[in-house]
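Table S2 (text version). Query chain:
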Amino acid sequence: IKKPIQQSHFLLGRRIGGIDDGERYPLALINVLFGDGMSSRLYQSLREKNGLTYNIYSSIHLYSDCGTFYIYAGFDRAKKRRIERLIYREIEKLGNMKLTKVEISRAKEQLKSGTIMEMEGLTERMASLAKSEFYLGKREEVAEILANIDAISNDDLNDIISKYFTSEGWTEVSILPE
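Corresponding structure-token output:
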């Protein structure tokens, strides 16, 4: 899509399982490692190391029967091809590398602290409770969520990575300046 805008936008996404298929917590942890925040692999590679993007992150959205994992980048149009190559390289790197214990431990603590902080606001807490009721049919307590995060194993992560983090199966959308 070409529009009269200044910044280019790129979205790379793929379908993942739903909220209750057993992949939710490992996917959330991988998202923290891969693209959620300034310490993530995507941010460090594309923004900090190479200075190519204005903004870059990944996110997951889960529904009762399916979900999406996506990567967003905002950048100058001239850098589009290089950014695409580097994003795919990071996907392949994640698929080919073993995660370190330090990396996993840091990501678990980040995910748990984010979960706790998210529950401090009344609006966020109510939305989380409603989503839990709608999609899971039950209320999930914070202690249960934290225990599920702690229970994620290296095998869980490796299974998810080998299933989703290959260079195939992604859909690309770009909005570029005219």
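Notes on Table S2: The helical segments are 24-34, 41-49, 80-96, 101-118, 122-136, 142-150, 154-164. The beta strands are 2-3, 8-16, 53-62, 67-75, 171-177.
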